[in-house]
Amino acid sequence: MNLTDLEITRKRLLWRATHRGIKEMDILVGGYARLNLAKMGQAELTQFADLLEIPDQDLLSWATKQSTVPLEQQSAMLEDMLGFLPEGNL
After folding, report:
1. Is the CATH number 1.10.150.250 carried by domain 5-82?
2. What number of other Cβ atoms are within 10 A of residue 30's Cβ?
3. Cα(43)–Cα(56) distance, rounded to whole angstroms?
């Protein structure tokens, strides 16, 4: 099997997205990744990788609306991910 660089990147990002450390974030971030990674190009994959660097506690706080996303973290992709409702919800 000969995988392209983008396919390898997608597989690595999917693993990282589904093994966050907090189960709710595995479901939210991993579910978003499963739905969207295949259609992301290199620029979006890089942006998603940057989002994966955000600590789970921050993402959970933003997803549950306990705090607001700081201006320097705001992006359309983060907004889309935080609004993602996995099947069965959290």
Report:
1. yes
2. 19
3. 23
Predicted TM-score (pTM) above 0.85: yes
- pLDDT exceeds cutoff 80 at 90: no
C-beta atoms surrounding 11 within 10 Å: 12
Domain positions in the chain are 5-82
Assigned token pair, 4: 């392209």
Is 56 buried (19+), middle (13-18) or exposed (0-12) by CB count in 10 A? Answer: middle
Query: Positive or negative CA dihedral for 40, 43, 49, 50?
Result: negative
pLDDT, tens only, 13-50: 999 999 998 999 999 999 999 999 999 999 999 999 99
Q: How far apart are CA 40 and CA 26, in angstroms?
A: 19
